[in-house]
Specification:
Layout (H helix, E strand, L loop, with lengths): L1 H17 L3 E6 L4 E7 L5 E7 L5 E8 L5 E8 L2 E2 L1 E6 L3 E8 L2 E9 L10 H5 L5 H7 L4
Antiparallel strand pairs: 1-2, 2-3, 3-4, 4-5, 5-6, 5-7, 7-8, 8-9
Amino acid sequence: MKHTFFLLAFLISAVSFEQQKRDLKLNKNTNLIDITYYHDKGAVGQFGAYTLNGLLQGEWLSFNAQVEKLVSANYDNGKKGGKWFYWTNKTLKEVDYNENGIVNVIELKNKGSLAIKFNFQQIKKHPKFRMLFYYKWFVF
């Protein structure tokens, strides 16, 4: 199982290195720095927020160059926490973290429709994703 997580971490790193452009914006309501990374051809690769001292904070979403979701992650002052979701071609892995430690792992195989609850508040912050969300995000 550790090998699978190292492979997923490598995949996320590879996606991050592919990304060239980024947009940074100070969110005065949350006092966080909202950031969006883009792939070479302009597709969104990742978005989330940093604290003012550079720690990952809140929900982060990662996409491949075809804008298919790869990872939904949650951070609390730079530490992994809550539920993370990892998508591959045929599986969805739900990983529960608590202060950077893995608490539980569930793997679901795609054998039909699957309903997933997402935090829609993050999507609302990024108008570029509204139409894309309704079109692509429930497709595996």
